[in-house]
Design a protein that fits this description.
single chain; about 350 residues; mainly alpha; A middle domain of Talin 1; two-stranded antiparallel sheet; two-stranded antiparallel ribbon; 14 helices; 4 strands; globular
Length: about 350
């Protein structure tokens, strides 16, 4: 049997031998390793997602912050940790296409796949009074900003710093405007004995979803490497969907517990953080240079992300819900998008 002789260090860092630049595995060995990483990742994601939701809702009552804002900040940002880690590492490894594709693809997946899957299980209802409209505007504005920067062709250190500062200012403003939704708070009894234990479970949950997603993505990349899928497409599809699994896990758990505010806050918050926080911080640490990423991201994929964000926002503002029929349409659209990008790039 042939050997798979070149393994990208970005994929196999946890499994690398010290001082070794190359690992050799048979296809079967590589497949087993990938499958093991994916199973371990899924277990960590499910458990971590449960802890994150329970502790976030508990802390919302004690902080005087509405569940929508908690979902937007702690849950939304915390579940974006996998995207942050992958994007920063990819950019430092000389693969800014993976970094950008990861963020753009994750924002598409968060709505067309993650939210849609939750909506198929249970209708997601919007409550504009909780500040949802301003969060939607921020999500669209962040997407437009990234679109403009991609058309320019590069994202420098100063642009990245501005993006991070915008995010920090918006989060601060969110807390200033936050207020407890009493009917939501009163309907869910405390799950923890104290704020200290809630903080511990929140931290443990976020760590679990981050590590779990990392194992899942690395395993997925190994499988993709065996079949020779182009790097940028991996970022837009496999890595994007893999790093969005924390959003799926926490959103499904929130749906089971009746927390629509946290579901929407999680999705919107993750999309804002992906652009302003992840791309911003990635560019601050190492600027994304002109010509260093695939043109398709600027000419097609970011436009898809913007259209998806606009349609999603329109649904919430006008219809105030995302139900099963919409979820099925979204899932179909996501499948069609992935088929298209693979068909258009396979063998390139």
């Amino acid at each position: 049997m042939g050997r798979w002789q070149e393994v990208n260090p970005l994929i196999f860092t946890p499994f690398s031998l010290r001082g070794s630049n190359m690992l050799e595995f048979t296809l079967i060995e590589g497949g087993i390793l990938a499958l093991g990483a994916m199973i371990a990742g899924l277990i960590l994601l499910v458990k971590g997602g449960d802890w994150t939701i329970e502790s976030a809702v508990y802390l919302a009552k004690h902080w005087g912050v509405s569940p929508m804002v908690i979902g937007f900040t702690i849950v939304g940002f915390g579940t974006s940790l996998p995207e942050l880690v992958v994007s920063v590492i990819a950019n430092f490894q000389g693969s800014p296409g993976i970094a950008l594709g990861n963020v753009v693809g994750s924002n598409i997946a968060n709505i067309l796949m993650i939210l849609a899957t939750v909506a198929i299980i249970s209708t997601v209802t919007a409550r504009p009074a909780n500040g949802m409209f301003r969060d939607l505007v921020m999500m669209i504005a962040a997407t437009v900003l990234l679109l403009v920067l991609l058309q320019y062709g590069e994202i420098g250190r100063m642009a990245g710093l501005v993006m991070v500062l915008i995010l920090a200012g918006y989060v601060f403003w969110q807390y200033r405007k936050a207020s407890v939704a009493e009917d939501e708070a009163d309907s869910h009894p405390p799950a923890f004995g104290s704020k200290g234990s809630a903080y511990m479970f929140l931290l443990a949950g976020l760590i679990c979803v981050a590590i779990g997603a990392e194992f899942l993505v690395r395993g997925s990349k190994v499988g993709a490497g065996i079949i020779g899928v182009p790097e940028a497409i991996i970022g837009l599809s496999i890595i994007a969907l893999g790093t969005s699994l924390p959003e799926l896990t926490t959103s499904i758990i929130a749906a089971r517990k009746g927390h629509s505010d946290i579901i929407l806050g999680n999705i919107i918050g993750s999309n804002v953080f992906n652009v302003l926080g992840i791309i911003g911080l990635t560019a601050v640490l190492k600027p994304i240079e002109r010509g260093s990423f695939e043109p398709q991201i600027a000419s097609f994929d970011i436009w898809v992300a913007l259209v998806v964000a606009l349609v999603f926002s329109l649904l919430l503002v006008v219809y105030k819900k995302v139900d099963r029929p919409v979820g099925l349409v979204f899932c179909t659209a996501y499948l069609a998008y992935n088929i298209y990008i693979y068909a258009a790039n396979m063998g390139s």
